[in-house]
Amino acid sequence: MFQSLSANLERAIKSLKGQGRITEINIAATIKEIRRSLVQADVHYKVAKQVTDAIKQKAIGTNVLTSVSPGQLFTKLVQDALTDLMGGIHTEVRLTGHPAVILVAGLQGAGKTTLVGKLGHYYQKKNKSPLLVACDLYRPAAVEQLETLGAQLNINVYTEPLEQKPYTVAQNAIKEAKSKALDLVIVDTAGRLTTDEEMMQEICMLKERLTPSETLFVVDAMAGQDAVTTAQAFNEKLNFDGVVLTKLDGDARGGAALSIRSVVHKPIKFISTGEKMQDLDLFHPDRMASRILGMGDVISFVERAEAVYNETQQRSLQQKIKTNQFNLEDLDKQIQKIEKIGSIKEMVAMLPGLGKAMPALPLEDDLFKNCKVIIASMTVKERRNPHIIDQSRRERIARGSGKTIQEVNQLLKQFDVICKMMKKVHKKGSNLLGSLPSLLKKRSAS
């Protein structure tokens, strides 16, 4: 989402390279360019001016150390300013009460029901026992959607007939959670407009009767400044506790993410970056600022990877690599784990140095699709013993997968390359995840 803004900010800061020191004269054009970049990214012009004024004020009075260039120092000042703009520090979600209750509100189409499923999945991994509650009784498909998500995630879902009142359903759900010793209730609600007084009264009454430990307002990041305006109107009536930004994987300009905190004065607590249930992250202003400036977000990358790779599996994999037993079955499992971490583009954006090069790389979310299809067309014996795959077997695999002989040959060749790279990484004492950037670049270049 922030590729355009990142490129513009990088160009602006480049103008300071070669300068001996920071002065009001030599940063004037840079400040102007940064302000223009923020406005282009759909940040409100008053907020953009406020940010650039703060950067300018700090820059003028800052001494440049001999070990730091003016460009490097200015990048740090911009990073600090963006971090402050988005809230400064991460704000935790409060989970108090038995059970704790999270009320989810927002406009229709913002992704509330999907978010409820993602929140359930997120807290389930945190050893919580969630109950999802279908209180969007105006859109029948919402109830069915939540039931489907609950079944996929193996999470309890509470529903009642559509003619019931939402607050009755929610109160009964809390009783159900207590009876089953479930410690978290996540309530989905109907999408509503701030101009619909009756619907706004309903959500306010729902909050009053439930007294949730956390009320989250869901914002479609692709809505731009409209999202900020809507959040402001909702907050005046509902007084929510935090914001969740959805659809951050879109190609919008991203101004909502940058300015909503300073306008609404409520923290962004989660960001959603895709349709998969694992595509939900805690929002850290400093990490987001780093990503915007093309410096990656290694901490978030490692956190995601740790959720997928456990120590026992890692040791088993390293032993296979060490003893030359890594096979196509193992490769297929690793691809599945990589896909669980997030989309390829999102992962690359988190890695320092690769984020800037991403537009030039042919990275698609289905990057490994051909690999999976071809491997699935092999027998178990072939997956575990790739060396037995001769020409006749390659022809059969190609027919079974609907791919060409050349594509099958390419996969087997790439598998050999990956094995060799893994051996090198293992000899250096690094872990498998450390080799991922190199593997991605190698795979995308082929």
Brief rundown of the structure:
The chain is α/β, with parallel strands linked by helices and 446 residues long. It has 20 helices and 8 strands.
Poorly predicted runs of 5 or more residues: 430-446
Q: Largest sheet at a glance?
A: 8 strands, mixed
Radius of gyration equals 25 Å
| Fraction of residues in helix | 55-70%
Number of helices: 20
What's the count of strands? 8
Strand order of the largest sheet: 3-2-4-1-5-6-7-8
Helix/strand structural class: alpha/beta
Write the element-wise H/E pattern from the N-terminal end onward.
HHHHEHEHEHEHEHEHEEHHHHHHHHHH
Beta percentage is 5-15%
CATH class of the largest domain: Alpha Beta
CATH architecture of the largest domain: 3-Layer(aba) Sandwich
CATH superfamily of the largest domain: P-loop containing nucleotide triphosphate hydrolases
Mean pLDDT: 78
Shape: flat
Cα distance spanning the termini: 26 Å
Count of discrete structural domains: 3
CATH topology of the largest domain: Rossmann fold
Structural features:
alpha/beta, Rossmann fold, 434 Repressor (Amino-terminal Domain), 3 domains, eight-stranded mixed sheet
Question: How would you describe this structure to a colleague?
Answer:
It is a single chain. This protein is of the alpha/beta class and 446 residues long. The protein has 3 domains: 3-85, Four Helix Bundle (Hemerythrin (Met), subunit A) (Up-down Bundle), CATH 1.20.120; 100-295, Rossmann fold, CATH 3.40.50.300; 310-445, 434 Repressor (Amino-terminal Domain) (Orthogonal Bundle), CATH 1.10.260. The protein has helices at 3-14, 28-40, 45-60, 70-85, 112-125, 140-153, 166-179, 197-210, 225-238, 255-264, 285-292, 298-308, 311-322, 328-341, 344-350, 369-376, 380-384, 391-401, 405-427, 436-445, and strands spanning 100-106, 130-135, 156-158, 184-189, 214-220, 242-246, 268-272, 280-282. It has an 8-stranded mixed β-sheet, sandwiched between helices. Strand 6, helix 10 and strand 7 form a beta-alpha-beta unit. Helix 1 (3-14) runs antiparallel to helix 2. The chain is flat. It starts with a helix and ends with a helix. The relative contact order is 0.10.
